[in-house]
Amino acid sequence: MTAYDYIHDGDSIYRKSFAIIREEADLSSFSDEQADLAIRMIHACGLVKAAQHFRFSKDFVAKARGALHAGKPIYCDAQMVAHGVTHARLPTANKVICTLRDSRTFELAKTIGNTRSAAALDLWDEMEGSLVAIGNAPTALFRLLEMLDAGAPRPAAIIGMPVGFVGAAESKEALMESAHGIPYAVVCGRMGGSAMTAACINAVARAGL
Amino acid sequence: MTAYDYIHDGDSIYRKSFAIIREEADLSSFSDEQADLAIRMIHACGLVKAAQHFRFSKDFVAKARGALHAGKPIYCDAQMVAHGVTHARLPTANKVICTLRDSRTFELAKTIGNTRSAAALDLWDEMEGSLVAIGNAPTALFRLLEMLDAGAPRPAAIIGMPVGFVGAAESKEALMESAHGIPYAVVCGRMGGSAMTAACINAVARAGL
């Protein structure tokens, strides 16, 4: 009936996709748990070579997953990240929070002389033990580090994957140097973005692919 | 006061980013209008080399922009695409529609024996003259082509940028072969995704960077 020959079943598509990635990608530097995250992140960008830019600190998966099991919120810098989270995978119906469009953020941005993406973090009032996911704006990641340097409540783990050409690489280097011992997942360099960040959250949310 | 040296002004970050992309990317195969789209799409993925996979049919920009100026809706296959659209750039407060989570979509998917992403298109009831943006699911793009083959109302233009390892490249090849003369923007191969798709929509929505 159709002129196009393609797989119609979502689960089969996922399984075949993950098998292709496992075959083609170099995942040798990752633990089994980290490899599951890497596979989903590769799936989100369509590029197996992206894996060479992934960095997971040793206890990232355990701490990030622990935060979700403890019912802590997920803070996101961008609406696209928040809307990429698969709620059915979350272990405790965790809140997924993005304050970028909160009306107070506009005023805060002027007050602190920074982008709205950075100012939005000043409204993250349950950051202690949370999972923080920066998938868009380098300024948001820099702002997070400034807040931690100043003694802000500590998230359980940080996903640092802003994308772009100005500040993205630098903000992620800064995270790896200045995370105050907080576990992180990073895509080094210019790549990253909301899809890879949401994929990382979704992989953390439930063990196994 | 800060340990981190970075640009705090969003407009300056955009300008510098676009200048870097213009310097590094090979945009020679594009018209000026197409190059603006390409620059924003590169900005969304952090990879200048992605440009070699971009294909714009000759009248894509004019037809897609015309649809938005005529007040037509933007149909998206994924929530992340819809939430990546910058509403302030839209010329006529265009509706941005994603029917993936419509309660009817679940039942439709069973009925047609396809993914929810594909079934969601059966609820796109103002497709004539619209802008269609497929940024996630190859099955949605195949389904669109099947509907057009069967005589469905014709969108003004199609953004075909699903990402992934199973069906993504094939669905985009099929679009370029079987678009029934409808103008398209495509990222060939495995790359693509919601961020590049939303960037393409945002670039179409307003002329100039």
TrEMBL record, chains A, B:
Which InterPro entries does its entry note?
Cbl_synth_CobH/CbiC, CobH/CbiC_sf
Note the SUPFAM superfamilies from the entry.
Precorrin-8X methylmutase CbiC/CobH
Q: Establish whether keyword Isomerase is in the entry.
A: yes
Can you tell which superkingdom this protein's organism belongs to?
Bacteria
The molecular function terms in GO held by this entry are: precorrin-8X methylmutase activity
Q: Which residues cross the membrane?
A: none
Q: In which pathway does it act?
A: Cofactor biosynthesis; adenosylcobalamin biosynthesis
Could you tell me which residue ranges the Cobalamin biosynthesis precorrin-8X methylmutase CobH/CbiC domain spans?
13-206
Quote the EC number.
5.4.99.61
Gene3D superfamilies in the record, alphabetically? Cobalamin biosynthesis CobH/CbiC, precorrin-8X methylmutase (3.40.50.10230)
Q: List the PANTHER family.
A: COBALT-PRECORRIN-8 METHYLMUTASE
Entry-linked NCBIfam families: PRK08285.1
Family stated for the protein in its record? Belongs to the CobH/CbiC family.
Q: Could you identify this protein by its name?
A: Precorrin-8X methylmutase
